[in-house]
Amino acid sequence: MNNLVLITSIIDTPNKPLSYTQCRSVFSKQERFEQTKQTINSIKKYIPNSIIVLVEYSLLSKEEENYFLENVNYFINIHDISNEIIKNDLHSEFKARCEGTMTTFALNYIITNNIQFDMFYKISGRYWLTDKFDYNIFKEPISVIHLIDNNIMNAFTCVYKLTKPHLLLWLYFLQNTASVLYNNHGFENIFAIYIQSINNIKFINKVGVSGYVSICGTYIDM
């Protein structure tokens, strides 16, 4: 079974506030680069037969670019693409718009380039899987999602797994529905709205992922 794992990443964050905080990231570009390396290594360790797609939006050094090219299967840097609408969205004050735009771009790339896979995983850059990640739960042919505080309207978007049919529906939702929600909802709320339209989901209490919240540096272990 081929497991496609999407990493969404911005290691060089813009010096622009978000709608809810002046600080976009307490971490330097170098720190975020090292954290994203840890993301990649954890995927290779805990998800077998992984096909890693990394979508980045940063002006990178040659060292950083070469590392990504050598350590993932597909590397796309939106920074190199001449689409000002997408770039403006990725620097938006609304984090949901940033995440939604990057996710939509990545999923379109996967579908357009006919990348073959059986199951789809998404993990946010700078977060990493831990020994608590149970692949035996995730490998079942169903979508696997964690609800934050068991709230059906607050679905964890740092790590989730979707079947291929659910992934296609997620892309359709992002392209046709989510944009009207970006300025007034968190991306966790938007994802939660989407999953209410599908079935065959397993909700899990423990994900097995750790990392640091960008805006404040708080360590999480989910």
Question: Which CATH top level class fits?
Answer: Alpha Beta
The total count of helices amounts to 7
Write the CATH architecture name. Alpha-Beta Complex
What structural category characterises the helix and strand content? Answer: alpha/beta
* C-alpha end-to-end distance: 26 Å
Number of domains: 1
- Overall geometric form: globular
Strand order of the largest sheet: 3-2-1-4-7
3D structure, described in words:
- The chain has 222 residues and is an alpha/beta fold.
- The chain has a single domain, classed as Spore Coat Polysaccharide Biosynthesis Protein SpsA, Chain A.
- The strands form 3 sheets. Strands 3-2-1-4-7 form a 5-stranded mixed beta sheet, with helices on both faces. A 3-stranded antiparallel beta sheet has the order 5-9-10. Strands 6-8 form a two-stranded parallel ribbon.
- The longest helix has 18 residues.
- The chain is globular.
Compact summary:
This protein has 222 residues and is an alpha/beta fold. Helix content is 36%, strand content 21%.
Search tags:
Spore Coat Polysaccharide Biosynthesis Protein SpsA, Chain A; five-stranded mixed β-sheet; single chain; 36% helix; globular; 222 residues; three-stranded antiparallel β-sheet; alpha/beta; 7 helices
